[in-house]
Each structure stands twice: as C-alpha cells, then as structure tokens.
Amino acid sequence: MVRTGSVAGPTLAVVARAAGVSVPTASKVVNGREDVAPETRRRVTEALDRLGYVRRPRFDAAKSPGLVDLVVHSLESSWAGAILHGVEEAAQDAGLEVVVSAGLTRTRGDRPERGWLDKLATRGSSGVLFNLAELTVSQYAWLEQHRIPFVLIDPALEPPSGVVSVGGANWQGGVLATEHLLSLGHERVAVIAGHRRRTCSGARVAGYRSALAAAGVRHRAEYLRYGGFDEGSAYRRMLELLDLPEPPTAVFVCSDRMALGAYRALAERGVSVPDEVSVVGFDDLPEARWASPALTTVRQPVSEMAAVALRLLVRMMAGEQPEGTRTELSTRLVVRASTAVAA
C-alpha cells in the first residue's frame, strides 16, 4: 500500500527552474508560506504537480512518531465526537499528539486541493487517520508517493486493494436488528437503508435479508427503501412505507439519525412507537438514548474502531505491515423502548 523504499524525483532546484523562480521562492511555496504572489504560487504548484516533486518528510517515523493527523468530514456530529474520543485515548497511551482537520478534502478537477496535503507533509506528521466518505484516486496516489502511512476508519466505499481500514460488522448488525424484530412476532418488517453506493448500506441490507430468509419470512421488495444517512430522507421513506396498502409493523432504520426522521413521520401520521410500529436504529450514538421513546439500536463501537485504527497506524509507522487490510469489530443489539411485541 505504502512504498517504504526511496523514491527518485526532481530536486527543488529543478522545480524552481521549470517554474521560472528562485529556489528560495519555490521553497516558500512548498512550505506553505504566504509571502508569495498568487501567479508565482500557481506556476510553482503546477511545476510540482507536473514533475511529481516529493516533499521529503522531516521526521523519522520509526524513531519519533510524535505527531499524527486525523481528517474527518465534519466535527458537527456525535459520530465525530466518538471518533475523536477513541483517537485521543489511544494517542495518549501511545505518547502521540493529534492534529484534527475537518472538511478539507475538496478536489479541484481530478486533483486534490493541495493545501491540506502540503501541510500534512511539511509539518512532519508520521501518519494519517481518515474518517471520510471517500478519498479520490489522486489522494491515494499522493499518499503513496509521499510514503505516508494511513488507515481508513469506517470507509464508505470499498477501498483499493492493500489499503488498511477498520469498521464495524455491518452484516452482523443487520442480522441482529432483524432477528430482534422477528422474535417479537413481526413479519411485516421493512428496512430504510442509507446511500445505495455505500458499502455499509449493502452489508446491513444483506444482513436484514439473510435474517428474513433464515426465519422463512418472504422478502417484500416494497419494504426496502434507500435514502441518505439523514433525517429528511428517512422521513420521506417512512411516509412512503406508511402509504403502502399493507404497511410494515416494524422498521429497521440503518442509522440513529435516520431513525429520528422515521419517528417524525410516524408522529405526524399519529402512529405510536412501539405500540403500532417498532423501530430499530443503528450506531447507538447519544441521540438514541435521548429519543422518545428511547431507541432500540445496534451498537457500533465507534470509539473502539478509532482506537484500533490508531494502534494499527502506530505499527505501520514503525515499519510493520498488518496481517490483513480489513479489521471488523463486532456489533451488538441494545434493546430500549422503541420495540414491542407485534400487535
């Protein structure tokens, strides 16, 4: 996944000559200095890209892995809080400091925006943890070119071969959620999934269908609805399910946040949870406990996933290679007040 040998490439002098600037000016661009004219910065940046200049790390990761980066999509969710908690605890145990960046993976054309990538290389980070929807092909190539170890936390899409990742057992969670509803006597069990392209959505739906098949319950195509991982899409999918000639008596919703949207749709239609419709979520974030009624959900060990990813990264920074590229942590069912015996 990450090359550990030496990589030949142009010197900074070659880049400076190609851009028509002095070596000190090119060095300022490489190191993120602000005292460079925009047009000059553009010429140097284009030369860096065109020539494949590799910013040499200023650290010996095997001897002094003191700093790592954590890049997340957003810091506004309780999911991000759980990731931060797990990384922080594991980093303290390992004697590491963590730099957190949010929402910094925008792309320009087919290339990653250089800002955060350049800062990553110049500040001497020994490795990176990513908790993002996805990385681009160019970003993967940049990380490999710069020989920076990295680990993905709960990647939304199947990563390239050889990329190390940590996630939850999504198929197992789908089975647990559906078996719980079946055990309560529900046979009309629907599922509201997240984005169709997301790996976790497919695995949770596969678990749902597997549990139905094992119980001898027919899968109804109209009971499978895809949306996004947000309240609004789940709210709309729940209304669609309620409008069916034979609506479900139980719903497995593939995230706690989506379950709140389903709650809103049920409340607007005057449908009681759990007396008329049972609801199971996924994640066991704090909002699951705060919901009314408290949400039965599948606990995904988010903080533990982040901590395991950090420990794997430390091993990779020391030159070790994990035995496998995918680590899955078990999920478990947390029963609260949103599920009941079928009426």
Describe this structure in words.
- The protein has 343 residues and is an alpha/beta fold.
- Helices cover 41% and strands 17% of the residues.
- The chain is built from twelve helices and 14 strands.
- The protein has helices at residues 12-19, 23-30, 38-51, 78-94, 114-122, 137-145, 170-183, 199-214, 231-242, 256-268, 286-290, 302-317, and strands at residues 67-72, 97-102, 107-108, 111-112, 128-131, 150-153, 165-168, 189-193, 224-226, 250-253, 278-283, 296-299, 326-329, 332-334.
- A six-stranded parallel sheet has the order 2-1-5-6-7-13, with helices on one face.
- Strand 1 (67-72), helix 4 (78-94) and strand 2 form a beta-alpha-beta unit.
- The longest helix has 17 residues, at 78-94.
- The protein starts with 11 loop residues before the first helix and ends in a 9-residue tail after the last strand.
- The model is unreliable at 1-8, 57-64 and 105-112 (pLDDT under 50).
